[in-house]
């Protein structure tokens, strides 16, 4: 879109819009088709991420018991599991769907109320608009 963009995290409506947190447009009757498509794609991306974490936890079930290890070790443990998981995926090590039986999707803690508008970054709307234009230029999917 003619502007270099940095990485962003995906958030839901409860998070403040920041130039590093991409969140959907507020759902109401005034949304354009383009904004609805943006929200749909953001929701799809979020579900892909949730599925990836579910598979990671299913393959490396030690991640389900992280409360057993020290906080200092936790980042190294998670990184090691991510690397090993990617190695397995890259080498077509089959994922056993039965592993998912012991792994339930968990809701991560998040704010209960939407963030106040004062917390939103005015520059972030430009980032969201650029992403919205980009998604529109990609067509359906």
Automatic annotation (TrEMBL):
Subcellular location as annotated: Nucleus
Q: Name one GO cellular component term.
A: nucleus
| Pfam families attached to this UniProt entry | DDE_Tnp_4
Query: Which keywords does the record carry?
Result: Hydrolase, Metal-binding, Nuclease, Nucleus
User: What InterPro entries does the record point to?
Assistant: HARBI1-like, HARBI1_dom
What cofactors does the UniProt entry give for this protein?
Answer: a divalent metal cation
Lineage, top-rank taxon, reads Eukaryota
Query: Does the record bear Nucleus in its keywords?
Result: yes
Q: For the DDE Tnp4 domain, which residue ranges apply?
A: 5-86
MF annotations from Gene Ontology: hydrolase activity; metal ion binding; nuclease activity
Instruction: Report the sequence similarity comment from the record.
Output: Belongs to the HARBI1 family.
What PANTHER family has UniProt attached to this entry?
PROTEIN ALP1-LIKE-RELATED, PTHR22930
Record-given protein name: ALP1 protein
- The protein's organism comes out as Ceuthmochares aereus
């Amino acid at each position: 879109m003619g502007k270099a963009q940095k990485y962003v995290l995906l958030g839901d409506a409860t998070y403040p819009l920041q130039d590093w947190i991409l969140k959907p447009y507020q759902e109401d009757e005034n949304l354009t088709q383009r904004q609805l498509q943006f929200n749909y794609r953001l929701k799809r991306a979020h579900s892909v991420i949730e599925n990836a974490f579910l598979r990671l936890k299913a393959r490396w079930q030690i991640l389900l018991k992280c409360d057993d290890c020290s906080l200092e070790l936790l980042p190294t443990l998670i990184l090691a599991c991510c690397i090993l998981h990617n190695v397995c995926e890259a080498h077509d090590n089959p994922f056993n769907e039965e592993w998912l039986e012991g792994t339930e999707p968990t809701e991560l803690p998040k704010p209960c109320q939407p963030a106040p508008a004062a917390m939103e970054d005015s520059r972030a709307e430009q980032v969201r608009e650029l992403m919205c234009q980009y998604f529109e230029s990609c067509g359906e999917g």
